[in-house]
Amino acid sequence: MAKNDPYAALRIKEFNIFLLVRFALVFGWSMQFIVIEWQVYALTNDKLSLGIIGLCEFLPAFLFAPFAGHIVDKKEKRNLFTLCIALFSLISFGLFWLTSEAIESSWTVNYILYGIYSLVFFGGVLRAFFGPTIFSLIALIVPKKIYPNAATWSSSTWKGANVFGALCGGFLIAWIGVHYTLGIIFSLVMLALILVFGINKKPVLNKKTNESVMDSLKVGLRFVFNDKVILGALTLDMIAVLFGGAVAIFAVFAKDVLDAGPRGFGFLNAALSSGSIITMVATTYLPITKNTGKKLLISVFGFGICMIIFGASKLLWLSLVALFLSGVFDGVSMVIRQTILQLKTPDDMRGRVGAVNSMFVGSSNELGALESGVAAKLFGAPLAVILGGTVTLITVTTMHFKNKSLRELDLTKDIEEHEKDGV
């Protein structure tokens, strides 16, 4: 096997452009979410209104995902990506317009809220297309033999943009206000729209033009649920996020459990995110293709252990260490999952498989926040996190004994075959 090159994907010009586009979009989307939550709460002073924002984005993203996968497999990916960005720019401009002084002085609060909720809903529809389009486009930009490296850089870019976008969103609200912050977001989206033309059009690999929507959806779902490796990887990620995550109730820990205040709240978020980012970058130097299945199981098991420690901790330093390590394990599992999906998915089904992945991951994020809140209300925040971590451990243990294909997965041969074929 050829010597590992940690910068293999970065030597491809189109992939660098893709990373810039993705960073600008995710950075802007992350800021936009923070800014809109702030604005809506400022208008209503109602916590339920924040839940409505999440619901407006989750429902269309989940419901439209299967249809989006079908369309993505049928269409040229660069142009579809461009269309998604163009429509996203309209949403960003709409939010910028709704927060202007002219609108705030002439519209009632309810009309402004309805406008914001509507744009967030359409953003959720777009999100259903973004996931499978990006997943499909990466595979057409880089050769198969460097999929793992490309998946690592792409995941690192997404995570970094997500984290820094959230941080900058809060800072910019305080510095220049909501309206002008949304103006910066619109500018970022327009920058992404210009950059995306640096990527050439790609061939459409799904030639089944007469296949109906329902038949296409059935084929995609059947493939995922019949492939034990892909299904196992998606299930592990979904359970870990749905039950093991605690981001939604960090504020409770900072205020009531650790007595750390707003600064401690920031440290908790930073510890988790920094662990993920550092690890994802490190995996470019330490490839995860050998004994891939065992590494995935160990990483998710380690994540569950760390969350149990975090839930039981009453010391800020111990909680920070536990969250940092949980971010490390989460970063490894994210890269492994993306690598498995890229290598094991047929080229003509990437849109549909990417859509199913979006449904698993996207739904688990929003529903995980709901689960955390309900469990914290019923059992208290510490016990809720401990129980979630325990469910994660039980899931990993069950997967270890019941899913031999995933347990014994090794992607080394897959990479070597692609290297021999020169693809």
CATH class of the largest domain: Mainly Alpha
**Distinct helical segment count:** 16
One letter per element, helices H and strands E, the order comes to HHHHHHHHHHHHHHHH
Number of strands: 0
Main location: membrane
Membrane topology: Multi-pass membrane protein
Subcellular location: Cell membrane
GO cellular component, one term: plasma membrane
Q: How would you characterize the overall build of this protein?
A:
This protein has 16 helices and no strands. The two termini are 14 Å apart. The chain is mostly helical. The longest helix is centred in the middle third of the chain and has 49 residues. The protein folds into 2 domains: 210 residues, MFS general substrate transporter like domains (Growth Hormone, Chain: A, Up-down Bundle), CATH 1.20.1250.20; 212 residues, Up-down Bundle (Growth Hormone, Chain: A).
SSE diagram, text form:
Blueprint: H1 13-44, H2 47-74, H3 77-98, H4 101-106, H5 109-141, H6 147-195, H7 213-226, H8 228-244, H9 250-257, H10 261-282, H11 292-312, H12 316-344, H13 350-379, H14 381-402, H15 404-407, H16 412-421
Q: What key phrases describe this protein's structure?
A:
single chain, Growth Hormone, Chain: A, 16 helices, 82% helix, globular
Question: Summarize this, please?
Answer:
The chain is mainly alpha-helical and 423 residues long. The protein has helices at residues 13-44, 47-74, 77-98, 101-106, 109-141, 147-195, 213-226, 228-244, 250-257, 261-282, 292-312, 316-344, 350-379, 381-402, 404-407, 412-421.
